[in-house]
Amino acid sequence: MGIYNSNSDFNKYKTFYAVAETKSFSKASDLLHISQPAISYAIKELEDNLKTKLFIRERNGVILTDDGEKLMFYLQKAFNNIVKAERIITEREEEVTGLVRIGLYSHISQFMLPKIIKEFKKIHPGAKFSIFQSTNRDMTEILKRRDIDFIIMQYPIFLTNNGFKEEILCELETCFYGTKEMYDKYKEHDENTVYPLVLPFPGYVDIDTLEEKLKRNNIKFTSSIRSYASATTKELVKEGLGIGWGLKKVIEKELKNKELYEIPVDFDTPSTIYSIAYDEKFLNNTTEEFLKFFKDNLNKYI
User: Which fold has domain 95-172+274-301?
Assistant: First the structure.
C-alpha cells in the first residue's frame, strides 16, 4: 500500500521542486540540465496526475498555487530527510571530515565554543562547522526538523520526553555590572533610588528568580531595555544606558581592564544552568566525535 501502489514518477516531483525553488521554468531547466520543453511536459503530467494546477505563469516567472504550496511543503520535508539520511550514512565510516551543525545562545559562543572548536580542529582539521544562533523556541523547532545536530540552551530545553537526549552541561556564575559612574551611583544608593537595568527577557528560570530577589530586597528598578544577546547588553551598558546582568565569564576581560565594574548586591544572584539536547540516531561520525570532545574538555573553559 502507499508508496508501492503509487504510479508516480518521482523525477517529476524533483522537477516540480526545481521550478518551485527557482520560480522559473528556464532556471529549473539550467539547474537540472534538461530542456525547457521537458520541464513543461513533466509539470503538465504531474498536474494531470494530481488533477490540479500547481503553478500560475507570470511575466517574470511562476508562482505556486495553493495546492502547489501544499505540495512544496511536504516535498521539502521529504527531500531534506533524504539528504540527511545520505549525510549520516556516508559519513559514518569516513574520517572525521563531516559537518557539525550547532545551535546555541550568543553568550555561550563568546567564551566556550571557539576555543573548543580550535582544539578539535587541531586533531581533526577536516571537520566543518555551521553555527546557528537564535531563540530557544526557534532552535528547538530547527532541531526537531533535524536541520541542526544539537543545541546548547538554558536548562530545561525540553519539558517532555520527545525522543531527544538532554544532558546538563554546566552551571555558571552571574553578576551585575556597569560603568564606573553606575558603580559609584549604586554604592551611594538609598532605598528611593530607581536603577535602570538592562535585563534578558522574562520567562527563564534565572531571570524570573532574579527579578523576584530584587523585589524581595526592596531594590527599585526599571527595565526599559531588554536584550538576551550578551554582546549587545555589554555595549548598552558601556554607553551608560543601565546596569547589566549576565554571565560573569562573558565580561571577564572588561572587569580585569576596569572597563566595566562588578556591582555588589546583598544577595546571591541566580546561576544559569545550560544543557545540551540531541537525537543520537541522527548524528554523523564527526558530530559524535565532537560531542565527546566537547563534553570531555568543557571544564577547561568555564
Answer: D-Maltodextrin-Binding Protein; domain 2 (3.40.190)
Q: What is the C-alpha R_g of the chain? A: 26
How far is residue 119's CA from residue 293's CA, in Å, rounded to a whole number?
9
What are residue 55's DSSP bridge partners?
Answer: 64
pLDDT at 95 over 50: yes
Neighbours of 285 (CB within 10 A): 17
| 1 pLDDT tier (thresholds 50, 70, 90) | very low
pLDDT tens sequence across 34-51: 999 999 999 999 999 899
Query: pLDDT tens digit string along 154-199?
Result: 888 887 767 789 999 999 999 999 999 999 888 877 677 888 999 9
Distance from the Cα of residue 75 to its chain's centroid: 23
Q: Which residues pair with 262 in a beta bridge?
A: 177
All residues at 6 or more sequence positions from 238 whose CB lies less than 8 Å from its CB, including other chains: 179, 259, 260
Q: 158, 139, 149: which is closest to 99 by C-alpha? A: 149
Whether CATH 3.30.365.10 fits 174-270 = no
Q: Which CATH class is domain 2-89?
A: mainly alpha
What pLDDT does residue 2 have? 55
Domain spans of the chain, in order of start:
2-89, 95-172+274-301, 174-270
- Cell numbers that stand for 239 in this block: 554607553
Distance of CA 55 to the CA centre of its chain: 33
The answer to whether 95-172+274-301 and 174-270 have equal CATH topology is yes
Count other C-beta atoms under 10 Å from residue 191's C-beta.
7
- The pTM of this model reads 0.68
